[in-house]
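Notes from hallway chat w/ T.B., transcribed later so I don't forget. T.B. wanted the structure written out for a chain they're using in a teaching module, and asked if we could keep both sequence and structure tokens in one place. Agreed to drop them here.
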Amino acid sequence: MRLRDTIRTAANGLRHAKARSLLTMLGIVIGIASVILLMSLGASAQELILAQVQNIGSNLIFVIPGATKGSRFAPPPTAQGIIIKTLVKADADALRREPTIAAVAPEVRGSAFTPADADSFNRVAVIGPAIAHTLFGERDPVGRSIRLKDISFRVVGVLDAKGLGPFGIDQDNLIIIPITVAQKQLLGIDHYNSLTIQASDAYTVEFTQSRIVSVLRQNHRITDPDKDDFTIRTQADALALLGSITSILSIFLTAIASISLVVGGIGVMNIMLVSVVERTREIGLRKAVGATNRDILRQFLWEAIMLTSFGGVVGIALGALLVVGAYFAVMRFSSTGWVFALPPTAIALALLVSTLTGVLFGIYPARRAAAKNPIDALRYE
């Protein structure tokens, strides 16, 4: 039997049981829509996170106390709860004198105070808009006082509303004070937790990174590179790390959504087995007039493939609608800068998986149909 005739016969078989075919496809539709939705949400989250990191500058270098051995993605000792005091003011001062470096910011992401504020231990603060509203309501907070650990600070400015920033920091709930006051009067320490360094535009980030290594080794009197007591990471490292994390998360979410596809595939196999039993006399009659085992197998296999493939197309359309709805819902109720993403790979993967589901879960019922003895099939009541 020609392939065209096989497909036509399979389509006729599905049309004769429309309600059952639609209910069978429902599991595939839900599974494919779930995969599309979660893959799209994962892609949107990845683009949002990476864009936030890129927006803080492409020429930033981060210095963290403690050495990281092995993978460049391994967490530094400070991330493991170990307090290391190897970065001090002398390091920041030495790096500021390095011509390849445009700026050095210990423990802060930007400059909010004049050097005189830090040098004279002025108790001033810049606060986020959410904190300003909580403490002062509609009143202007500038010039008023807040207290941190029984220390009074004069508010000299309010940050612009930005919501979640890079690395998940809520910038609307920040309180920024001079680093010297934070060290000496609030925390009682004389070291830095990190240094954020901006490379000069006249030099590459890689060259500036090598110069930072040289300056810190000289400051710390380190001659053996294996004994470095600091870790340097660039923006590219941060992007690669975040990209790996978000990719793994997307794969994990997609795997969870795929469970519904397995359930849908089992439903297809179950219904096809029922169909084989119900159509036993039809199978016997077709064999009696010359249909081969191969013809019968192809017919039932194509029925399963057509069920899952059409269900996949409907699932993709439903998933796309859900993605659009989720995008507008997030944009309506949030100011996170959410981006719309419907990856072509998600659509291609959905079509491939739906077709493979039909093949994998349709082959057994098709073999059962092809294996029926025509004499016994014609006698079946």
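Follow-up for T.B.: The first helix runs from residue 3 to 15. Might be a good example for the class.
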